[in-house]
Amino acid sequence: MGQKATERIFEIEAEATVEVEAGENVAGLEELRVKWLGRKSELTGILRGIAGLEPAERGLVGGSANKVREKLEATLEARIAELSAAELETSLSTDSIDVTLPGSPVRAVGHLHPITRTRRLIEDVMIGLGYQVMEGPEVEHDFYNFTALNHPDDHPARMLQDTFYVEPGGGAPAEVGKQDVLLRTHTSPMQVRAMEAAPPPLFMIVPGKTYRRDSDATHSPMFHQVEGLAVAEGITLADLKGTLLAMLREIFGPDREIRMRPHFFPFTEPSVEFDVSCFKCGGTGQLGKGDRCNLCKGIGWIELGGAGMVDPNVFGFVRDAGYDPDSVTGFAFGFGIERIAMLRHGVGDLRLFFDNDVRLLEQFS
Ligand code: PHE
Hints:
The chain is an alpha+beta fold. It has eleven helices and eleven strands. It has two domains: 2-94; 114-364, BirA Bifunctional Protein, domain 2. Strand 8 (286-287) and strand 9 (291-292) form a beta hairpin. The N and C termini lie far apart (89 Å).
């Protein structure tokens, strides 16, 4: 009896091992575990029957059965580990999701706003000329927006009609201009902030939002400007002209010319306005057979912005930061990003940029 049981145990081992090694998936192997090692399995039955054996045979049968049980368990575990690694491998390679596939239904791809694209174009050009790009606060102190830019107390730009004040004062006309906090009316306050922050030489541009009480086809209460400032020893108006020419040729084409006309700004001396030659008529003012160019209105020039040599009085506010008006000179310029975008894309009304009508915006992809 004991002899037969031992033989049977080794037969079980051989049969079960063949089946386990041939098992092809984890679920199938769990079934084999039940079949060969479960409560109702033959091996378990033999172990339970040990008590009924001759005492002399108990040790041998019990020992063999337990050894075989352990071996089978180890074989099962090894095969399961092997198969689950392979199963994980195939599920990783077949179940992967390609997040770059278009959605269903396919959605139109978005794109940057034309103002953002124009701003980035200007930044790229100026970075290429060695300028750093800075940002500044849109809510600004009167000091930076006006006072340190050499605006007298009664300058008209300080009037409530032109400037949005964040903390309006008493309202009496005599008080206007003394209010502290406002929405910056131009990016020029960053001239002073940039000079306070770092000594010369300084070459920087500041793109950003600006605010004025204005609204028509070419003005919006919120608009964008780019400020430029270059300060070092020996900078001249010729450097300003060369810089504007290089910048505007990158934006409007290599054949463009520029011109500067005398103007006035409180913070530059001398001050100019600068124009670029019209890229539609090539600066002639005429289209085809004598028709007046509708872009430059027959003038041949397109007005773009203001500029000039930094007024020594402005340096006076940052003298302690290293800007001695007797040793450094500089130029500054400023212009509107919307105006450049309107010209580049032939958009006639600036307000269209902010209506957020996708029928318009879609055209600039
Ligand atoms: N800040 C001026 C404006 O908004 C433009 C300007 C900038 C003029 C720098 C001179 C120098 O009109």
